[in-house]
Amino acid sequence: MAEPLKVVVTGAAGQIAYSLLFSVAKGDVFGPDQPLELLLLDITPMMEVLNGVVMELMDCAIPLVKNIVATDDPKVAFKDADAAFMVGAMPRKEGMERKDLLKANVRIFKAQGQAADQVAKKSIKIIVVGNPANTNACIMSKYAPSIPKANFTCMTRLDQNRAQAQIASKLGVSNGDVTNVIIWGNHSSTQFPDVAHASVNINGKKVTVPEAVKNDNYLKNEFIKTVQQRGAAVIKARKLSSAMSAAKAACDHMHDWFFGTKGNDFVSMGVISDGSYGIREGLMYSYPVRIKNKTWSIVQGLDINQFAREKMDATAAELTEELEAALAECEA
Ligand SMILES: NC(=O)C1=CN([C@@H]2O[C@H](COP(=O)(O)OP(=O)(O)OC[C@H]3O[C@@H](n4cnc5c(N)ncnc54)[C@H](O)[C@@H]3O)[C@@H](O)[C@H]2O)C=CC1
Ligand SMILES: O=C([O-])CC(=O)C(=O)O
């Protein structure tokens, strides 16, 4: 059997981690034959709660789990780590935008970037979930200069899954029949959910989503707004932010990073911009990517019309503002 993979989960005593840990532990992400060492990080006051989570994980008696470490020390958690789910951060409450969390959360990612820089494997693969996810990922990468920038990503897969589910429900098809929905930009209410390049399988025939939906007004307005506002709608209803669906999306993201995308299909991930599609280099921007050999590459050459261009630039402008505010906060 392979050596255990060292997997960090931060915010391990929280809502998202409670669903995430179970899926990771039973092999949904790294495969059914990959043994795991789980490195669970939370803050000192949460150690008792975290201990309860560890007890439950033990009680699941999952054969893949070879060791569990629970700690409040980032350097212990990141030591020789292969993969990290960066969940630990404050969630927003009703009426807040995700960027309102910047002041509270960005320093966490500075400190944990510094710890990863010192002790993690240089090949570590990192997904940032804690909000504002794109900007936190950018900051973490900045403070971990010895780890390649391509190893830092942020989660927009939940937005992709939400968009896919909206289209599937509108057309009365199964979620798996909808492919290549794109999320461009920030994981925020300025994100651009784009179905211009998406397909749907209807009765065995592949057609584009705009052809199948036959309602441009819906796709340009209600659809986009529903996806942009879905996180807020869940908070309003649940009084807590999305957790089960966020955990599922984090698993999808990391699974695809390890195992690759299928054929010509692509998925959306926040990755460091290389200037593709005219987006400022260095922003952590959600793009469509294909993944092979654990390496993502931005899908090139998609047609961008005027409507899309404006939406893509608006979300980039917000990311630029966030990054400037985050850098000021970290340097203060
Ligand atoms: N990117 C995305 O699509 C999504 C992102 N989120 C974000 O994920 C984050 C976590 O959400 P929940 O699990 O629901 O929140 P939660 O409040 O239930 O759990 C967060 C956990 O992080 C811990 N934490 C705080 N500071 C920490 C630090 N410095 N180091 C380690 N752990 C720390 C807390 O003690 C708590 O146990 C929030 O920022 C939320 O907004 C939530 C849903 C989707
Ligand atoms: O909306 C929030 O604050 C939590 C989140 O990121 C999401 O559900 O997409």
Based on CA atoms alone, the radius of gyration comes out at 19 Å
Q: Look at the structure and give the CATH class of the largest domain.
A: Alpha Beta
**Percentage of residues assigned to helices:** 40-55%
Number of domains: 2
Structural class, judged by helices and strands? alpha/beta
Q: How far is the N terminus from the C terminus?
A: 48 Å
State the oligomer: single chain
Binding site for substrate: 92, 98, 131, 162
Organism: Plakobranchus ocellatus
Catalytic activity: (S)-malate + NAD(+) = oxaloacetate + NADH + H(+)
Family: Belongs to the LDH/MDH superfamily. MDH type 2 family.
What is the compact description of this entry?
Belongs to the LDH/MDH superfamily. MDH type 2 family. The chain has 332 residues and is α/β, with parallel strands linked by helices. Helix content is 42%, strand content 20%.
Q: What do these coordinates show?
A:
Belongs to the LDH/MDH superfamily. MDH type 2 family. This is Malate dehydrogenase. The structure is a single chain. The chain has 332 residues and is an alpha/beta fold. The chain folds into two domains: 5-154, Rossmann fold; 157-321, Lactate dehydrogenase/glycoside hydrolase, family 4, C-terminal (L-2-Hydroxyisocaproate Dehydrogenase, Chain A, domain 2, Alpha-Beta Complex). The chain contains twelve helices and 14 strands. It has helices spanning 15-25, 47-59, 74-77, 102-119, 133-142, 157-171, 209-213, 216-220, 222-228, 230-238, 244-259, 306-331, and strands at 5-10, 36-41, 65-71, 83-86, 125-128, 152-154, 178-179, 182-184, 192-194, 199-202, 205-208, 267-272, 284-292, 295-298. A six-stranded parallel beta sheet has the order 3-2-1-4-5-6. The protein has a three-stranded antiparallel beta sheet with strand order 7-10-11. The N and C termini lie far apart (48 Å). 1,4-dihydronicotinamide adenine dinucleotide is lined by residues 10-11, 13-17, 41-43, 46, 87-92, 108, 129-131, 133, 155, 158, 187, 241-243, 246. 1,4-dihydronicotinamide adenine dinucleotide binds at residues 10-11, 13-17, 41-43, 46, 87-92, 108, 129-131, 133, 155, 158, 187, 241-243, 246.
